[in-house]
Structures are given as C-alpha cells and as structure tokens.
Amino acid sequence: MVRLGAFLVGLFFSGMLLLGLGDTVIKAIQEPAQPSAEYEFHEKPLAVSFAHDGPFGKFDRGQLQRGLKVYSEVCAACHSLNLVAFRDFAALGYNEDQVKALAKAWKTEVPTINPETGEPATRPGIPADKIPSPFANEVAARAANNNALPPDLSLITKARADGTAYVYSLLMGYRDQAGYKNAEGKELLKEFPDAATPAGLHFNPWFANLNIAMANPIAGDDQVTYDDGTKATKEQMAKDVSAFLAWTAEPKMENRKSAGWAALGFLFIFTVLAWMSYRTIWADKKH
Amino acid sequence: MSFPWAQEYKPQGTVSKWVDERLPLPRLVYNAVGAGYPVPRNLNYFWNFGVLAGVALVIQIVTGIILAMHYYASVDGAFNSVEHIMRDVNSGWFIRYAHMNGASFFFIVVYIHIFRGLFYGSYKAPREMIWLLGVTIFLLMMATAFMGYVLPWGQMSFWGAQVITGFFSAIPVVGEPLRQWLLGGFAPDQAALNRFFSLHYLMPFVIAGVIILHVWALHIPGSSNPTGVSVKSEQDTVPFHPYYTAKDGFGLGIFLIFFVAVTFFAPNMLGHPDNYIPANPLSTPAHIVPEWYFLPFYAILKAFTVDFGIPFTGIIIIEAKLMGVLAMFGSILLLFFLPWLDTSPVRSGHYRPLFRKFFWFGLIPCIILLTYCGGKPPYTQWVILSQIAAAYYFIHFLIILPIVSRIERPLPLPNSITEAVTGKPLEKAAA
To answer: How is this protein situated with respect to the membrane (chain B) (predicted)?
Structure first.
C-alpha cells in the first residue's frame, strides 16, 4: 500500500516536472531569452590587492588614515557612517588627543537639543559620538540628491560581493558612454541603443544596472592633500578609501585572524594527540 | 536493551555508590556512551558524524545564549544590535561568526550523517524509529535555522521570511489567513520578529529532547555498521569507551579545524552580502536566495512551472505554486516512508550492486545539481537542469528504490563482522 501510494505520488510529481520541462524547452525555443545590456556589459570587480588581504593580512594604518581623509573630505558630503564612532579611530593609529580633535573638527555637528529652550540644536562631536550623518533624515538626503539615497557606508564592503574590490572598481569605473566597448570589443550603444544613460544618472559598467546616481566622486588627481606626503592620484585615493571602508565594515579583522591562528595551532596539537591516543587504544584491535 | 556481554557499571567509592542508589545518572551515561555500550568494531569515519552533530548543537546553544544577551529583537534595533555585538561586545565578533557558521557546519555534518544512513541502510529494521526521529530532528533544524536567519533583520532575513511564509498562502482558501496568523500581520514585521526570536530560542531545546529519544532508540538495537550484518558475539564489538571516544575525539579535532578555518578566515563565505544591508520592505533584492543548506529544496520548489488541470478546459486543479510547495515539503516527508520503500533485506550499499549505482550516479549528482541550480537566477538553463534533477529525486526514492530492492541480487554477505574485518570466521568457543 505504501509502495503503491509512493509510486503514484512519484509518477505525479515527476510527470508534472517533465511536463514543465517540455514547457520550458518549448518556451525557450519560441521566445529565446533576449540578451540584456546589464547582463553583457556589467563588469566583474577589478583585480586589486590590499595589505589586509589573505589570512596573514593586516591593515596598513597609513593607508587607513589616508582613506579617512578621503572619506571625510569627499564621501562624507553625502554618505553616512552610522556604525562607526570617533573613538574607533584610535584603531587607525591616532592618539586620544588626535581623536578628540578629529571629532571636534568634523564638518557635520552632532544633533542635540538646546538645554535652555529644548529647541533642536547641534554641538561639536566628542569621541563617544557616532559619526554624524550629513543629512538629518532620508527625505532630506533624497531631496539633496535628485531623489537617490546615498547608502550608509559602514558595511558597504561586506554588503557587496567582493566588496573592497567592488568599491575600488566603482570609483575607478566611470566611463564615457559614447563609443564604450567591453573587453570583447562589443560597443554598448550599437548593441543596445536603448541603454543610453538617462539624464541625472552616470554611466559606470561596474554598477549592477550600469547607471549610477552618484556622480564621479574622485574625478581627478590631488582632490585631497595627504598629510603623509603621498601623491593623491585618483587610483591612490580610490584604493585608500576602499581599504578604509574594509576597516569600517570589519574593525575586528586583525583580532579575528590572529585568534584564528592561535585556535588552529591549538587544534592541530589537540588533533595530533587525539590521533595518537586513537592509534594506541586501537593497536590490538583489527578493524 | 543491550548485549548480554555489555560491561556493568560498578560504582567504586562510597559517594558513587550513594549516588548510584539514589539517582543512577552515572550508570546511565556509562551505558549510553561509556564502556557499557558495546559497538561494532568495524565502524568507519562516517560513524563520527552523529557525535559531531551533537557537538554542533552544543556550539549553537552556547553561542546562541550569549548572543541573546546582547541581541535586541526589534525591527529598528535588531540590525544595529548585531553590529553592536560585532564591534563593541568583547569577542562578540567571534561569538556571532561562530554561531553564523556553526549553523552551516551543523547542516554539513547532519547531511553527511543522513547520507551515511541512506547508503548503509541505517533506516531499516530494527532501526526505523531512529530514522523517523532523525528526520524529525532535521525538520526542526530547518525551522530553527530559518527563524535564526531572520533575526539580524537584513535584506535577506526580511525577504526570506516573506518568501517562506508566502508558501502558506499557496494553500487554497485558508492560506492567506493562515499566513497572516503565523506572521502576526500582513508582512514580516515586529510581531513576526519577536515570535521568531522566541521560537528560535525554544526550538534547539526541543531538538535536544528529540536527540535524547534518537539516542535512546539507537541503544535498543545498537549501532549499525558498514557491512550491515548484525552483531553476533562479543568479538564483533568493542566498548564505546575508550575505543569510540578516542576515535570521536580525533574526528572532533578534524571537524573543528575545518570549522575554525572557515569561521576565522572566511566567515562570510557561506552567507549572502545582501544580509549586511538593513531590511527594507520597499526594496526587493534582485535575487532572493535562502541559505545554502536550503538550496536543493528551493530548487524543487521553483522547478514546478505548469499548473495541474484538465487539458483544453482551462480548469486548474492545483496551481504550479502550490504544487511546488507540496513537492518541496514532500521531498523531505518522503524520507519518513523510506524504511518501507526500500524492502531489500540487505542493509549496506556495499553488497547491493544496483542500489549502489543509483546512489552514486543518480542520487548524489542529483542533489549536487539541485543545490547548484537552487542558488541560480531563473534562467532557462538552470530551470531545465533543476526540472530534470527534481524529477529524478522523486523517481529515485518513490519508484526506483522499491523496484531495485525487488529485482536486485545482492552480493554474498560476510557471516559476521569479525569475519569481514579479520578474514577469519568467528571463533565460536571464545565467545
């Protein structure tokens, strides 16, 4: 009885699946999938390497400080960093006084209330504050950005596939759409005349749908002046800020890797000892 | 309950005797996982995975309890409370990554444990009850893992909850009210998040309870073994302790090395980047996928693309969506009937030439294909592959398996476990 029921259920499900298979094949032949501009012209992130890559990688403190400079002078005009506090910048190699000074000098002040009147007010930042957002709320952010919402950047490198390389590629990826060809030599506007970037958007083949609301934030060299004398090329700035955002997404990365090696070392010894006791105990038993 | 030659617990000191007379808990442990439990001597490394699954559950419970001390089940605060754990709680990043990857490793060891059972026929008489309880544990694990994935309230949390609870709305008439009742609203929101947190905390203890029954049921006939031949004498067995405690200790070391390597060096490898974006009910992700361990079932769900109805009349009896949901649940529920679908008296796949071919060249590639297609966008090639693989899945368990067990001629079995191991027949006198 069980087997008869099973046989019928199996026949029904597999029959419906095979009907569906026929249906899928017929549809695929009758109306083959149209190639899309996003599918053919979206680029994989560029190959780029960082000091913090790999199981032994550590953040380059100098690079993180330069990245913070790029963030504070360029990105912070639109993008918040809600999950990071000024006190966290101590991890970039700043001392307590420098952190205090950074918090105090931050362009956006921290919202508060006037203790006398209760009216909304702002005050300079202190180390315990989270980085203040450039806009008071989402409506204000959209109003100032052509109805696009600049995402918070705290976790951006974890929130995108291959995140750090993605951020770097996106910053380096603004292209002139007229005459743009991909690696296979196909010209976008010839293949897909409808894919022309709409007004108010910017062509960037590293962005999922090729057209991003953000204007090229790092348009040329020397947009910031680095304190350590590093030449602020476009590439250098893109790389530094990507590394900085890798740190904001995972400030505990170095602890994680060093704890990982300690744990692996411990487990290696444990496993060798466990193997030896296993062999000893089983020595007289064939199995 | 056990073999007559099982060693008896003999309390030594006065305290042990005193305890044994009043609450024989040490005796219970001795008989369950100590020297008092005789186990076949020929178990291979696949028999490590039951203990490993138990360890994985303990890791999940311990890390989970600590996470719950810092987590805040609120649609406004859940995402940030997880990031608070990652950034500000002492070693919180470790606890959270261990819990997140612990779920994946729990499923990895349980899947290997299940496939061990499938290949070696561990579900057959007299072990049907162990198998039924095992499938129950698997279902409870899936529910627990799903609810846990919702808790960080990221994009995949929210949209995963939306899709999975949407299954219920496929049920005719009562579907939509049922879905709203389960969620406590029209869409996943505060009410759903709170109850998911409550249930996510409860269910692991329910799982632990069913595991106790699973192990209890195991101790009635004792462990199976790679030959599938029943234990015949003391020579066939060794005491669990120290023999298998030692072997499990080594297996545990290997397991933890893999677990630690992923947790510390690629903690986000098995997750989805979108879950680092806070949940936004107004923005649907381009491509909603569940966690990797649900992908085969998700592929089965999506493989049903045509309605079942009366041809040429336009009357639909079962819509494709409902059929997908039924098939997805059916693909797991059919495992409950496995002991009665596979009627071959031979347990181990080693001695079943035909069964073995279908297992390695049919079932295993089919599951791998389903897992792969489940994570892909619904492009024609992936739909075609998942339809073929899903059809095979049902045909394998519901049609092939009963037929194979009827027509197959098994290879000769060894007379005893000892003979299989040593090549010498059992010494009757010695036993």
So the answer is: Multi-pass membrane protein
For the record, the structure tokens of B83 come out as 């990031």
- pLDDT tens per residue, range B84-123: 999 999 999 999 999 999 999 999 999 999 999 999 999 9
The conformation of residue B311, written as its DSSP 8-state character, comes to T
Long-range contacts for B171-177 (Cβ within 8 Å, ≥24 apart)?
B171/B322, B171/B325, B172/B322
Query: Got the DSSP string for B128-152?
Result: HHHHHHHHHHHHHHHHHHHHHHHTT
Rounded CA separation B191/B179 (Å): 13
Q: What is the pLDDT of residues A65-99, one digit of tens each?
A: 999 999 999 999 999 999 999 999 999 999 999 99
Name residues 64-83 of chain B within 8 A of A (Cβ): 80, 83
The pair of three-digit structure tokens given for residue B11, joined into one six-digit string: 């309390």
CA angle A269, A274, A278 (to 5 degrees): 150
Which positions ≥6 away from A187 have C-beta within 8 Å? A179, A180, A181
Domains of chain B by residue range = 32-282, 289-418
Give the list of residues 6+ apart from residue A174 with CB closer than 8 angstroms, or none: A202, A203, A204, A216
Distance from CA of B400 to the nearest CA of A (A): 9
Q: Which of B99, B301, B28 is nearest to A17 (CA)?
A: B301
Specify binding-site residues of A for heme c: 75, 78-79, 214
A231 touches B: beta carbon within 8 Å: no
Ranges of H-type helices in B279-424: 295-303, 320-333, 338-341, 353-358, 364-374, 380-395, 401-407, 417-422
Q: What interface predicted TM-score (ipTM) does this complex get? A: 0.94
Element (H, E) at A254: helix A253-281
Q: Which residue do the tokens 């599938």 mark?
A: B228
Average pLDDT, rounded, for chain A: 94
Cβ-based burial of B181 (10 A; exposed 0-12, middle 13-18, buried ≥19): exposed
Check: CB of residue B398 under 8 Å from CB of residue B381.
no
Distances B10 to A65, B34, B58, B113, B240 between C-alpha atoms, Å = 68, 12, 29, 33, 16
Distance CA A75, CA B206 (A): 49
> How large a percentage of chain A has pLDDT more than 70?
100
> What pLDDT score does B89 carry?
97
B421 contacts on A by Cβ (under 8 Å): 286-287
Q: Return the residue matching tokens 């950005």.
A: A145
Q: Per the CATH hierarchy, to which homologous superfamily does domain B32-282 belong?
A: Cytochrome Bc1 Complex; Chain C (1.20.810.10)
**Interface check B327 vs A, CB under 8 A:** yes
